[in-house]
Amino acid sequence: SIDQKYREWRAEYVRAWGDMLYIDYNKKGEVEQKNAITCSEAIGYGMLISVLMVNQADFDGLLRWFLHFKNANGLCSWQQIDNKHNRTYSNAPEGGSNSATDGDIDIATSLFYAAKAWGRSPCGRYDYRQIAIPLCKAIWDHEINHYTFMPTLGDWWGEESAYTDVTRPSDFILAGFLTFYNEDVERSQQWSRVMDTIIANVQHQVQLNPTGLIADFLKLATNGYYEPPRVKILESDNDKDYNWNSCRVPWRLSVYYLLTQDPRVLPALMAQSSFFGSLPEVNAGYHLNGQRIHGRTYSDMSYTAPASMVMWTM
């Protein structure tokens, strides 16, 4: 059952530090920063799961983590480490205090959900909506390109010109932006423009690749659309492929479609569903033409679950 799966997940990943909670995302030490313990994306997932499973105590514990590690721009610091020398947890030395856009979107979305579910924390200490609104403003101010209305990689994007015209499709969290449109009244028109621009670029990807697969990173082209890069952008030579970031896109688009029935995203969902449905199994990574990335002969739930979601939705 869902309840049993939730209990297993919680026992496996939710950890305490004082009165705060975090999601341990590096149990096997596979993250490049070996002593990393969590990141903003994990905190966002944990907060969404907690409110959807009606666990206010866990939600407040994770919220305290966000508030403790909020950076100077009012966003969640991306990565924390176990600083064994000082016997404490702190931001990672290499970019740990920067933000990651998807983590902040999920945290803000979860706060609006919590405001509808509970209003405030039991002791009245946290007014969830009053925390969500400033976070939305910070996302708009620091994580959205005000010229193209597309999500940026984080609050550090303007500091390095190589990333000024880059977006990451795993940040195309349309359900989150829809929530912002409905709840963050002061910026409703901006969030509407962000959604429209993301959807137009998703539609463009289907024109480029009939599989519907979308690259890990996209770069602004001279035609005004974002397109797959030809070379490494940030992480690897597979930045141009359907890899460990964009494997989340079918899930994010499916959730938005289930909420809205917006026909504009149907071509992408149908193409993705058709592609994944034609496979004997979903492997961990593909070129946009549907060919498996060399050496990726294995499956991973990070790919299988979103692919299953889009096939179920269609």
Explained architecture:
The chain is mainly α. The chain has ten helices and eight strands. It has helices at residues 2-13, 40-52, 56-68, 101-117, 128-143, 174-183, 188-208, 249-260, 266-277, 301-313; strands spanning 14-17, 20-23, 36-39, 79-83, 88-91, 166-167, 218-220, 226-227. A three-stranded antiparallel beta sheet has the order 3-4-5. Strands 6-7-8 form a three-stranded antiparallel beta sheet. A two-stranded antiparallel ribbon has the order 1-2. A hairpin with a 4-residue loop joins β4 and β5. α2 packs antiparallel against α3 (56-68), α4 (101-117) packs antiparallel against α5 and α6 packs antiparallel against α7 (188-208). The model has no long low-confidence stretch (mean pLDDT 95).
The residue-averaged pLDDT reads 95
The level of helicity is 40-55%
Strand order of the largest sheet: 3-4-5
Instruction: Profile the largest sheet.
Output: 3 strands, antiparallel
Oligomer: single chain
Uncertain residue segments: none
State the distance separating the first and last CA atoms: 23 Å
| Number of E strands | 8
The helix tally amounts to 10
Write the layout of secondary structure elements.
Layout: H1 2-13, E1 14-17, E2 20-23, E3 36-39, H2 40-52, H3 56-68, E4 79-83, E5 88-91, H4 101-117, H5 128-143, E6 166-167, H6 174-183, H7 188-208, E7 218-220, E8 226-227, H8 249-260, H9 266-277, H10 301-313
Antiparallel strand pairs: 1-2, 3-4, 4-5, 6-7, 7-8
